[in-house]
Amino acid sequence: MNWQNRNYFDGRLAVNRLTAFWALTETGLGGFLHAFRLPFTGLFVGGLAILWMALIARFTVKPAKTILTSGALVLVLKEVLSPQSPPTAYFAVGIQILLGALFFLGKRWLGPKTLVLTVLTVLLSAIQKVIILTLLFGNTLWQSIDVLGAQITAQMSGLLPKISASSWLIGLFFGFYALGGLLIGMLNSALVEHDFTYRRPPQTLTDTTSSNKKSKIRISPIVWFALAALLIVAAQGYFLNSWALAFSSLARALLITALWFAVLLPILRLSARRRSSDWQERYRDTLSSIRQFIPILRALLTEARKVAKAAPNRKLRTFFTVWLEYALSYDIEHHSADGTDYQRQND
Fold it and tell me: For 181, what's the count of Cα atoms within 13 Å in the CB-facing half-sphere?
């Protein structure tokens, strides 16, 4: 990064803009990325949080402290802009924030550390999913999968070795997430080390990310959960030849779900709202600034996507590079206030 760009991008607004990127990622960026026809967009979006944290570490003198503060602001904005998010999503973001603050205590080796942290957080996401399934349905879920695997190997007349189907399934699941995390981490690492340059934002911005959306019939997550639970119970009853065990597994899942939604969730939400209110009051100006910039960020996304479409190759990397340069350059062209309470505190 040359000295002209350093004057532009290492200022107070860089962290503010990157926090807006992070907040947008946590409150609905996945729908926009479908335009690139990316498989498993949810996995990709989950890895992007590491990119924003790494860039925040690059553009601040106090990486760990700034990541913790920006992360707290993202959690507050997530509650305000995406209140339907499940508590497990907040837990996952909280773990990412703590790991980011730990990994980015200093600014050396940002690229390699970004790669490692991306793979680690993606794998932790996979582990979280397996733990939740085990808590809800118990070991009988994996036992029924093992029985199915044994039946398949028996029908193959000894062509396949006797295997633990559940172990293979979990191993493949983790392997897929590790590979996805590695690919996303390589992209993140390249972007963190990229030499950003000033890019004049378009004079007229139009947000088309939320327009032209076809209305879709949305099915409640509760319906999907109920269908999945019934399918799992049916598989347990059939393959283990014990419907009593299957229905006890269903009762276990219903009991845990009821305790979560009726007891633990209200307590957690009440505690989070009290903490959130404190943060909203303490960083009112910064939250307002970030929230106001998110629509501009969406419009800049549209412009960056146009540039990426015209690129001969590396369209995804070009998209993120252009989008970041537009956003980081925006206030050079459209001057605003000289920072906020949060930015002054972290300079």
Answer: 21
